[in-house]
Amino acid sequence: MFGARPQEAAFPVEQYPSLNAFFTRELRPGLRPVATRAIVSPVDATVGAYGIVRSDTLVQAKGRDYALTALLGDSASADRYEGGTYATLYLSPRDYHRFHAPVAGEITAATYIPGSLWPVNVAAVANVANLFAVNERIVIELDGERGGRVAVVPVGATMVGMTRLAFDDDLHTNARRREVRHHRYDPPVHVEAGAALGHFEFGSTIVLVCSPDAGTIEPLTVGATVRMGQRLGRLPDRS
User: Fold this and answer.
1) Which residues contact 25 (CB under 8 A, 6 or more apart)?
2) Which of 37, 73, 150, 212 is most exposed by smallest CB count within 10 Å?
């Protein structure tokens, strides 16, 4: 009904014991090659927004903005991204629902921020104020191998029972204790570009934000389709 591609799954569809097991499926090895020397897409998705972070502001939809500080839950962290680039990537029910590292580097922290579970489809994005900053989410902070910082923010949505992390079993959405939880990793968690970061247990959105010194997400067309591992932008020079 939704256009999912069972032929891309790691196993034949009849081997999945439930809809959720299929929904959170892995893909066949090698199906999503990861571009080298680039910022890569963390997900299979549709581009919902693209832009430059100006005055702490991101575009949610035409005529509707929201504050990066509200999304990240921390003004000092948000300051790091001023002048950088961002992309909003919407996962529909047909998509592969695992998310991956957009660059190689070190995960230094992750923060669970409880919130609402509004839908994140086109109609909701156009009409619900500050949607991504009020919905349940996790903020993953990744220091790039070539410098700079990248925020990967998986945002929950209606019917998302859980968003789980591959590198931290204890931090997830829909937690029983409805309070902000901040985990700092010492030593940091090293990841290569394309490494698994976690998965959604229903459709949702990733907001990807790069500081100016982490590289640049190149212009994206709203409505375009991206695949995990494809080039989204350039990394900074090693110097």
Assistant:
1) 9, 10, 11, 16, 96, 97
2) 37
Q: How far apart are CA 157 and CA 117, in angstroms?
A: 5
The CA-atom distances, in angstroms, between 146 and each of 72, 89, 104, 230, 238 are: 23, 24, 8, 19, 6
Q: Which residues are catalytic?
A: 44, 100, 204
Task: Tokens 């999912």: give the residue.
Answer: 4
Inside any domain, residue 2:
no
How many domains are there within the chain? 1
Residue 192 pLDDT exceeds 70: yes
What region, left, alpha or beta, does residue 112 occupy, with left being phi > 0 and alpha being psi -120 to 50 degrees? beta
Query: Tell me, what's the pLDDT at 126?
Result: 86
CB-based contact 84:72 (threshold 8 Å): no
Q: Are 137 and 173 in contact (CB under 8 A)?
A: yes
Separation between Cα atoms, residue 96 and residue 191, nearest integer Å: 20
Confidence of residue 108 (pLDDT cuts 50, 70, 90): very high
Q: Domain of 184?
A: 35-233
